[in-house]
Write a structure and sequence with these properties.
The chain crosses the membrane at residues 25-48, 69-91, 103-125. The protein has 5 helices and 2 strands. 24% of the residues are buried. Helix 2 (23-45) packs antiparallel against helix 3 (64-90), helix 2 (23-45) packs antiparallel against helix 5 (141-157) and helix 4 packs antiparallel against helix 5 (141-157). The protein is elongated and about 65 Å long. The chain starts with 15 loop residues before the first helix and ends with a helix. It is mostly helical. The longest helix has 34 residues, at 97-130.
Length: 158
């Protein structure tokens, strides 16, 4: 037997190629890239201003909460991917089965929560984009669509 949560194999040498080929590592990298795309699109082109009014407004139906939500969950998802990526690196070195169990449960719980939050984000951004007037969008429509699209993809990557 492999022991609880693979604890019997703890302490082996680190193999980068084998590590990167693990499904959870690939999914984590994909999730981080999707999160980066979402918040980069919203930070870069998510806010507009009219030529006669220098006040910035969110491209999603002028709803600041839509941009803040997308940026917030994107940044937090990216940081969580980095954190759990580091946990994946050190996980084989942890021999305490209780610690391993709590890390696995934390990863599972956080992934479930973030899947739900990405679903809410996708629905929220899509709804606000459908109510956005065409005359309010000068540039940034492609970034808004990319944020919506990668929010949708993030549901499945998490």
């Amino acid at each position: 037997g492999g022991g609880a949560y693979g604890a019997a194999k703890a302490g082996g040498a680190f193999d980068l190629v084998r590590f990167v080929q693990q499904p959870q590592v690939v999914a984590r990298i994909v999730s981080a890239v999707f999160a980066l795309i979402v918040f980069a699109c919203l930070v870069g082109d998510g806010y507009m201003s009219r030529p006669e009014d220098p006040q910035l407004y969110c491209i999603f139906n002028r709803n600041e909460d839509a941009c803040r939500y997308g940026i917030g969950i994107g940044v937090l998802a990216f940081l969580a991917c980095i954190f759990f990526f580091m946990v994946d690196v050190y996980f084989p070195q942890i021999s305490n089965t209780t610690d391993r169990k709590y890390l696995v449960l934390a990863d599972l719980g956080f992934s479930g929560l973030w899947t739900f939050l990405w679903f809410i984000g996708f629905c929220f951004l899509t709804n606000q984009w459908s109510w956005t007037r065409a005359e309010d969008v000068f540039i940034g429509a492609d970034s808004a669509r990319a944020a919506i699209t990668f929010s949708f993809f993030s549901i499945f990557s998490w």
